[in-house]
Structure formats: C-alpha cells, structure tokens
Records
---
Amino acid sequence: MDRIPQTLLYEAIELMRKIGKIPSRKQLMDTFNIPENLARKLFGILEHLDLFTDERLMIKIPAPSDVLRVGAIADLHVGSKSCYEDMLREYLKLANERTDALFIAGDLIDGFGVYKGQQFELKYTSVYDQVQRLNEILDTYTKPIYFITGNHEDAVYKTTGIDVGNLIKNEKRIYLGSYLANTKINGIKIDLWHGRGAGAYALSYKMQKLIEQYLSGKKPHIVFAGHWHRAFHLPIYRNVDGFECGTFQGETRLTKQMGIFPQTGGWFVNIWHSDGTPVIIEGQFWRFYI
Ligand SMILES: [Fe+2]
C-alpha cells in the first residue's frame, strides 16, 4: 500500500480540526478523491493523532545534567499464574541502583475477560487483589514511575467501568493514560505506546510503522512500546529510537495460539545528552531465561 503523502495528511488533519471529529472513511474518500485502501490507512493515522501532540507532560527529575538513566518495562501481567513476580522484583532491585525513573508501557495486571479461557490462567481472580499485589511489588522501586495502561486494563474498564490506572497511581506512580502518552523528561522526549492486535511476521514492522506516522517536528527521541511481549531496539529510525520492552509473563494459551515467544526481562537505557538533545542512547536488556 502507498505511503500517505504528507500534504494529504495535513489536509486531513485540517478537515478533522474543522469538523471537530475524525472524518469517516467515506468522508475521506469523497473529500480527497482517494481510493478506499488509502482512506482506510489515513483513518488509522487520524485515529492515533494524539501521537502528534505538542502537549508533552514536562517532567523534571534529579539526575546529572548530561545523562538520564531510565528503566523501561511492559506486560508485567501481575495476577497471572505465569507472571514471574520474583524476576520482576529482581529487575526492580537492580533498577533502584541503575535508573533515575521507570517507564511502564501497559498491561501491568492480567485483568479478566480479556480472551476466552483467560480466567483459568489467573492466580488472583479479583482485580483488586491483582492491583494490591502489583502495588506491593512496585513499592520496592524507590524512584518515580510513569505508566500507561494497556489492553488488559482496558478489558477491565470495558466490563466494569473500573479504571485500573487510578487504583495504581499515587504520588510516586504517575498515571499517564491509556495506550499512549507523550512526555518530556529532563529535556528528552519519550513516548509510551501499548500496541493492539497480533504481532507482525517481521520483528520491527510495527515499530517502524508507528515511527513513520509521526510528523516531522513532532517526533519523540524515544518510544517505549509494549503488547507483543518481545524485546528489541530499533536505533535512529527517522532519528527515533524505538524499544519494545519485553515481558515478565511466560507462555499463555493466547501466546501459544498466536505463536508468540515471550522475551522476558526489561531495559536499562542510558541517554547521554547535551541540553536535552541525545548524543548517545544505549540500551541494555536485562534478560532472564525461562
Ligand atoms: Fe500483554
């Protein structure tokens, strides 16, 4: 499929601003005289327009002026029988020494009703028990945590109206919303993203597609992504460093069905910078073998 021409994207954004909502595919086809496949792709981009926000959450934390050390994890799935709580605790212990802040890209708890049969894979069936266990574990990390929720928390919200992020947050654990967040921490622009749907055949495909959607001038320096339970670092793609954050959950019925092999562990990322412009981004994946 063709790439969306930038002028078309700008015009579609203008149209969206004018009508105050995302135009339908038919509206896009009629207004810009484009085929359905292009309209579908354009609609997908507009749906995620908060990626292009100028409004970044400004964060200032105590750290040396030339280096920022952060941890990045995702898909902890606390509450699942196959969550490796001990490993998570071990990672957080190390993170206390090696980082100044921690980012979590969604699926902190396992939730319930996410897919057929998931209830049989739970160690704690109550969401409140899951959150309590999670909070006990996160309390062992002494620095600030910035997190988004993912599809597992979203499933809880859809069935009960409970916003799990509100149960996790406190003065040290900052809740940045669901699926996406844009931050600027000590001058470094870091986005959090929790993906949707099945993974692609090629490991880096989803990350590349995400980074391609950013408009010039609106790009972050770093994206930390969760959802696919994989770990990799895509360096300087359109000058953005993309990280998929791995997981702390082993195999489940769903991952087996989807052919996903979990990559367990979390990142330690050191960002050397000159007044908020990164010069070296170094990622180390702390892994454990299961
Ligand atoms: Fe997950």
---
Amino acid sequence: MPTRKREPTEVNANHFAGLAGLINGSVDACADSDRCDGGNCVAVDLDTIQDRPVELLQRLLRFDTSNPPGNERECIDWIRELLEGIGCEVRILASEAERPNLIARLAGRGVCPPLLLQGHVDVVAARGQWRHEPFAGELHDGYVWGRGALDMKGGVAMMLAAFMRAKASRTPPPGDVILCLMADEEAGSDLGAEFLVREHPELFADVRYAIGEFGGFTMDVAGRRFYPIMVAEKQVCWSRAILRGPTGHGSMPIRGGAMGRLGRLLERLDSRRLPVHVTTVARTMIEKIAADVPPTLAMPLKGLLVPRITDRLLDVMGERGRVFDPLLHNTVSATIVGGGEKVNVIPDAITLTLDGRLLPGFAPEQLFAELRALVGVEMEFEVLRHDPVAGEPDLGLFDVLAGVLGELDPQAKAIPMLLPGITDGRFFSRLGIQTYGFLPMQLPAELPFMQLIHAENERLPADAVEFGTAAIGRLLERIG
Ligand SMILES: [Zn+2]
C-alpha cells in the first residue's frame, strides 16, 4: 500500500475534520463522535477500508445526497480523499460546483481495452416511516440500512472497494480500469453522465464495456435462483398529449370536446395494453428462465413469446406476470393533467403528460401511432424528453460475467435482462459503450428487492456487499 501523502490541513473542513486524523493514522479515539452510535461506529482506520466494503457502504450512506438538491460534493470529496490517499490520480469535473463527478483511472497491462465502472452517488428523498434512520448507515441483523443501500451506494461501495483492491494488487489488471462516480442520476443526469459524455467524451476513448446498475441481483423463480444481468434498457419517451375541442359557456354542455377525449384516452390507458413486441433480449431472457423452471411455469412463459396470446397469458398470470409485461410492450403512464381555467368556461385544450417507455429499437413516432390507434381520437404529441439508445446489445462480455457468478454461486444461473427502467448506461451508449447492469448481490428470496427501491426501509444484506465486491474484483482480474 502506498503511504498517504496528504496533510490534515488539506482535508476538507467540517464533515471531514475527523477523517484528517484517521487518514494520518491516529485512530485512538472515535473521531466521528457526532455520528458515532457505538456498535455502528465506522470511524476507524481507512487504510484498509477496501477490505471492509460494508463499512465503506455505511460511510457513503451517511452523506445525505437526496436529489433534489443532490449536494453530492461532500460525498465525492470524501471518495476523492480516499483514492488520492492510496496514490490514485483523481479528476473532478463539474457542471455545477456542488454537483461534481469523479473520475479515477487505474493503469492496466494494456492487453484489454479499458473497462468503465460507472455509478451514481445521489439518491431519492427518504420519505415514509423508516425503522432505522435513512442517513445513519446502521447495521442491524445483518443488513445495512439506509437510503441508497440498493440504489446505488451499495454498488458504488462494491466498485470502489474492488477498484482500490486492484490498485493495491501487485498485478495490474489486463486493461485500464476507469472509475466514474457521478451526480444527478435520479433527476435525469444533466449534471452527471449526460454532462460527462457531452463535454468530456475523450475520457472514455476506447472503452467498449461498462459495469453499472441495474442487475446482478438474485431473482427467485419457482425456487430456482437467477442472476439477471442488464444488457439493454427501455428508453424514456416523456411527452405531452394535447387534446383539443370546441370551447363554450359552461351552461351549454358540449359532447366530444377536449374533456371527453381526455376521458376516453385515460379509460383506454387504464383498460388496455399497447401492441405486443417480442425483442431479441426479452426473448432470450424469457427462454433462459423457461429452460430452468418446472414445465407448469415454463409453458406459460414460452407462451408469452407468442404475440397473439401474450396479453391473455399476462392477465391469467396476474402478479406473477407483472415483471414481464413492460418487457413485451411499449408503455405509457399518464402522470399530469393540465387544462381549464374558469368554472363556467369549457376548455378548448387539455394537456396530458405521459411517461412513455419504448422498447429498444422503437422511436417516439411509433409510440404515438400506437396510442392514436388505441384511443381513436385526434391528438397532438410533443416530445419532452427522449434519450435514444443503441438497438441491439453487444453481448461480448456476458459470458465472462456469467462465468464469475457461476464460480461464486454454482447453484445459480445468469441470464441477460431487458430493464424496463433507465440508467446512466443510455448516455454512455452514445459513445458506443455497452453497459452491463452488474452489481452482484446474493439476496434472501424473501427480501422484496424491487419494492424497496426508492421506498422506505431500503436495506441490503451485508453479505451481499462482500459478494458483489468479490465478483467485481474477479472481473477486474480478467478483463479491464
Ligand atoms: Zn440508481
């Protein structure tokens, strides 16, 4: 381990007052007494913290990076200190001073292209009733609790620890490893990934593959354990539908006006689906699951891939089919209604804001055509946000990732996954970089993983942090 060079005075003020002493090795007393709660105190020597990724995660969770407003600077500065302390060169790039991004590069042997580890340090607000403080990073019953434990400070802790271990190792990784920790993912990434890709694409030159959220966690289907690795994501198509009609006095009702059209649109969205599309990734994902589960479940799963019976099967499967529904359709959720100003004036236009999600390879116009056909009324559309991503995924790294998971958990099977949501991977795809959602977590079957994301009582088993760090570490030994 290289010795730490920084003087205490260079360490950031306030929050890091205690850290200064720790970085320089004086660990005789808890230097973080304002946050220390005895058994959950992690104010210890940071020299070997990469060997304790759980503590690293606890530390990260204590920074309140709720976005908005984000305030990622303290968290990013802390990571910068940590990395500079072990001799890494770190760059901070910010579009706004309080919302910085961090990039560190570890030189490899040059036999592989650089590998990008990308993650975000911002989190969504911690609302609701929590059993343990959301920004205390406490460990209870084998779980690390806190906002961001799953999305995605747990993943950041794994990447950071694996990166630091690779730095400490005598053998450099096969290729360079770029660690990129970003701001603003939860609010659209304008100050994070979008900014970096737009303003500093040279930092990612020659990168072919990236590791990021969202995937690598266990999924239990009929008692069989799978690791879905995200290889493609749906695309955002946020838009506004404008419904028009004649205006008039409220005392003289008009039928078939803007309000009536709105009603019809909402009723159709509530009761029907858009057409079925079976993309290559969804097909591969479902076929691989079907191949490993009992025939009683394999049959309906395979049936989902036959468009004329897909929707009927989804209805029959109910809750169990819910996870597959958005993988087989473009979807739209109506979220904001606007229109009407006076109680006695019939409005001539109503706007309906729509959270549309496109399957890979689809364009906004195709979604709008599907909506017009579904509803059968005149409407205009305005695109508010659309971040197109590459069509077919590059699966060149999939077998390596599946191999790593197979070594660490021989009972389980890795499968490629289409993600209904979005990640920062969509911005890196503009540079031709294929992101894999690979934050490996072996989770207890009873943990309601998906329901805990962005919800109260977010938590992650401590063992899963160790597992993921080991998996990413193995990957860095193989390809970088
Ligand atoms: Zn996330």
